[in-house]
């Protein structure tokens, strides 16, 4: 009898080793190894194993079905792609199950009307009921619990099929019988395969189950959503292994204390990775917010120092957000620098630019920066916002509440143009801003009058001069 081979796998990244290790040499996690049976033989291919010329391959497989929730569709790149596999990660209780239940209800609804109108279309693989259903597999909640949630969301349909099951082979059999138009797995950490002996939730189980589901998705052309939990560090458990397998990785983020939630793309084989979708969690479920700028502006304190509004781009969409700085004298030795929502090193760099080029001395000052609403802004267009809020807080001079800024700042204190200036200004004009301080190059390129007073600036000193009204 052949000996069963076991390996030790890092539960954080999937690195495997023949013996137990205290620290993972790949991702650096401590005490993360556990013993697992070696993975079974790899799955077969999708059946397209012969080399073929590109021109002979029939395109159009990437047919998109809009879900019907605009914010969700945009994040996916314009709708759900047949046969794609989508991972949605997020903290427990953030609303992943709610979001997907609402999405499922929308898909079912649009399929019902589609099937009615296109009954003769050849694309329908099953002419009768099959395509209209969506399979919702729950390994966490009982059907009664899901029913309770559905009642709260006023969702009811014969075509949403619930399956409380955790064995992946059974799930795939059920899906093959049902031929649904989509499958939701809530959550991938509870799913296991018979082929491995390790516990559900271990890296081996997650990878094998996800691989089987991917195989099912590609072969049957049915899109599959996987819900994934997030570890304390904020990564989807078993992250690297899953991120390679799936087509799209979305994160559902938000602060439990705030009602709004952001759906963000981390990876998308079928679209841009810069898009965000904004939702608000209400008593009747998640509501789409099609104008997030207004939301982020609604609680802004007026005429206080250290607060600036910047115009940033999230994918194709301009977004106005408030940036706050607090500059106060250091009480113990080393000055503290903290930034939330913007890159910490960027803040340090801009503080150095302010010291050197504008003679604003922050050596004995603690500096805290925060983006309101829990947003993260990584583009350099936020530089001008960081500069102006620090200066405003340092000098205790409020910035005119009807002024917005954007622009990149270089190491020699120069202000550089950023992309999509006009889109940003239009959004600002729409929300009711009156004045914009922007890079000179952006100002010169503007063609249309947007109803804003535009001030083009060349360097940090210009910025500081212009924010003091
Ligand atoms: P849930 O979707 O169960 O989160 P997850 O699947 O990510 O763990 O959402 C749970 C939270 O959402 C819970 O705290 C209650 C809240 N909620 C509402 O505020 N309104 C609603 O209509 C629903 C269904 C949930
Ligand atoms: Mg859930």
Question: Can you walk me through this structure?
Answer:
This protein has helices at about 70-75, 95-115, 145-150, 170-180, 205-220, 240-245, 290-295, 345-360, 385-395, 420-430, 440-445, 460-465; strands at about 5-10, 15, 35, 65, 80, 85-90, 135-140, 160-165, 180-185, 225-230, 250-255, 260-270, 275-280, 285-290, 305-315, 315-330, 335-340, 365-370, 405, 410, 415, 435-440, 455. The model is unreliable at about 120-130 (pLDDT under 50). Strands 8-7-9-10-6-11-12-13-14 form a nine-stranded mixed β-sheet, with helices on both faces. The protein has three domains: about 5-40, no CATH class; about 65-290, P-loop containing nucleotide triphosphate hydrolases (Rossmann fold); about 295-465, Ribosomal Protein S5, domain 2 (2-Layer Sandwich), CATH 3.30.230.10. The longest helix is centred in the first third of the chain and has 22 residues, at about 95-115. It is α/β, with parallel strands linked by helices and about 475 residues long. The radius of gyration is 26 Å and the shape is globular. It starts with 5 loop residues before the first strand and ends with a helix. Magnesium ion (MG) binds near residues 96, 97, 140 and 186.
């Amino acid at each position: 009898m052949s000996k069963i081979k076991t390996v030790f796998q890092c539960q954080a990244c999937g690195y495997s080793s023949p013996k137990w290790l205290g620290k993972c040499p790949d991702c650096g996690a401590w005490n993360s190894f556990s013993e697992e049976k070696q993975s079974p033989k790899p799955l077969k291919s999708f059946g397209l194993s012969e080399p073929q010329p590109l021109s002979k391959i029939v395109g159009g497989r990437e047919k998109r079905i809009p879900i019907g929730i605009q914010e969700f569709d945009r994040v996916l790149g314009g709708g759900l792609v047949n046969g794609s596999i989508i991972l949605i990660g997020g903290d427990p209780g953030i609303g992943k199950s709610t979001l997907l239940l609402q999405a499922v209800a929308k898909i079912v609804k649009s399929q019902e009307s589609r099937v009615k109108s296109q009954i003769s279309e050849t694309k329908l693989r099953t002419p009768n009921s099959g395509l209209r259903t969506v399979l919702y597999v729950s390994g966490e909640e009982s059907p009664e619990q899901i029913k309770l949630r559905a009642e709260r969301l006023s969702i009811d349909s014969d075509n949403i099929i619930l399956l409380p099951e955790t064995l992946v082979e059974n799930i795939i059999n059920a899906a093959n019988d049902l031929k649904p138009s989509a499958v939701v797995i809530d959550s991938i950490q509870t799913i296991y395969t018979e082929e491995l002996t390790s516990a559900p939730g271990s890296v081996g189980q997650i990878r094998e189950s996800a691989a089987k589901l991917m195989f099912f998705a590609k072969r049957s052309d049915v899109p599959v959503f996987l819900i994934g939990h997030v570890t304390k560090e904020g990564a989807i458990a078993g992250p690297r292994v899953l991120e390679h397998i799936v087509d799209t990785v979305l994160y559902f983020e938000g602060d439990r204390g705030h009602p709004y939630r952001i759906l963000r793309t981390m990876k998308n084989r079928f679209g841009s990775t810069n898009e965000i979708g904004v939702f608000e969690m209400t008593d009747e479920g998640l509501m789409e917010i099609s104008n997030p700028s207004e939301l982020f502006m609604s609680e802004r304190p007026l005429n206080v120092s250290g607060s600036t509004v910047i115009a940033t781009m999230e994918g194709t969409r301009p977004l106005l957000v408030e940036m706050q700085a607090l500059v106060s004298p250091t009480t113990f030795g080393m000055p503290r620098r903290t930034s939330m929502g913007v890159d910490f090193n960027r803040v340090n760099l801009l503080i150095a630019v302010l010291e050197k080029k504008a003679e604003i001395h922050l050596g004995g000052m603690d500096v805290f920066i925060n983006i309101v609403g829990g947003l993260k802004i990584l583009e350099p267009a936020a530089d001008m916002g960081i500069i102006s809020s620090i200066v405003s807080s340092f000098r205790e001079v409020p910035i005119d509440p009807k002024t917005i800024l954007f622009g990149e700042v270089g190491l020699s204190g120069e202000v550089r143009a950023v992309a999509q200036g006009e889109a940003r200004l239009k959004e600002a004009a729409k929300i009711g801003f009156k004045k914009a301080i922007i890079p000179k190059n952006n100002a010169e390129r503007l063609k249309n009058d947007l109803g804003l007073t535009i001030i083009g600036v060349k360097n940090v000193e210009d910025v500081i001069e212009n924010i003091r009204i």
